[in-house]
Amino acid sequence: MLNAAALLLALLCAANAAAAADLADKLRDDSELSQFYSLLESNQIANSTLSLRSCTIFVPTNEAFQRYKSKTAHVLYHITTEAYTQKRLPNTVSSDMAGNPPLYITKNSNGDIFVNNARIIPSLSVETNSDGKRQIMHIIDEVLEPLTVKAGHSDTPNNPNALKFLKNAEEFNVDNIGVRTYRSQVTMAKKESVYDAAGQHTFLVPVDEGFKLSARSSLVDGKVIDGHVIPNTVIFTAAAQHDDPKASAAFEDLLKVTVSFFKQKNGKMYVKSNTIVGDAKHRVGVVLAEIVKANIPVSNGVVHLIHRPLMIIDTTVTQFLQENAENGALRKFYEVIMDNGGAVLDDINSLTEVTILAPSNEAWNSSNINNVLRDRNKMRQILNMHIIKDRLNVDKIRQKKCKFDCPGAHCQQQHFPVLQRSR
């Protein structure tokens, strides 16, 4: 009788092991997923989850691992202990990593589903173990990267919210980028509650490099800080809808500021604030900032570190072009100006009110442009056509068809018809 019971127990254990092995077998047999399988195989907790529990596993491809820059991949951050099909994925799921940091699920207008910054590839495997527990695998195109604490900072909380990250940024693995200046302004303005708010938000944090201009930090007041937060919306860069303005926390009756994301062809991501309705302290206009460290997940959303503060219009047009001289979105435009002798900058500096129609780097790639570039006189006329002797924002252009003067003896009056682009 005892032998029969022992045999039955052995058979049940074998059946459980065989059933649990189904998902592991699927991973092991797919050569495109071998790197994740190797990590999973060596992780005792992950193996236990596969053997005993329902779960969803987000599995990066080998190609995703080849692009992954960090030395460590966190297997448990790719696992949640409930089974979710693509249709049933909620806005957030708790990962199995220590502290259970959330994974954020978003969908774009094309119907793509993202886990943090990783897109789910339309490939799905569903397995059921002997207890009827469902186990689901989603293939993703990027390794999920949690916010982790540097060695030697064991007291720093895992899974911080945006405020705790801001207060302890130097203790996290974020490429040693400092945010002390902005942090001190948040404290002085008593705006910690903005970063401490529960929910799912997008936080934009300027780095210390962006405060080289000595007076800039003093311009960061409570409203500017509000303008660095997109409430109730989590935006990772891969899932971001480009040039789709979102209302910031500084969007009210007397001040209206939106924030949007866009990407250059060279892969660089930018955010821009647009102060649509300003006041005495906050001028109407657009401020552009490059994202220098994107997609830092926190417990109440996502943080992006940006190279300068938004909303603050404290540079001249010439200074802005010079800031773009090395790797910026208008690098080629500045190069052409300087190749032409730089006199165009003198024209710009002589104007009290000026608008620049600045071609992007890609706009200069046309083969028709190359011949013109060699004719300095013709090029000077063309450059002058991109300068308007007036402060002209988009709303003023939309009001009517406009005629404006550009500088230079050979420059004709420019006529700008307004074309509305459908989205």
Automatic annotation (TrEMBL):
Keywords: Signal. Residues 1-20 form the signal peptide. Residues 20-144, 166-310, 314-423 form the FAS1 domain. Gene3D superfamilies: FAS1 domain. The keyword Secreted does not apply. SUPFAM superfamilies: FAS1 domain (SSF82153). It comes from the Eukaryota. It holds the Pfam family Fasciclin. The keyword Signal applies. This is LD25556p.
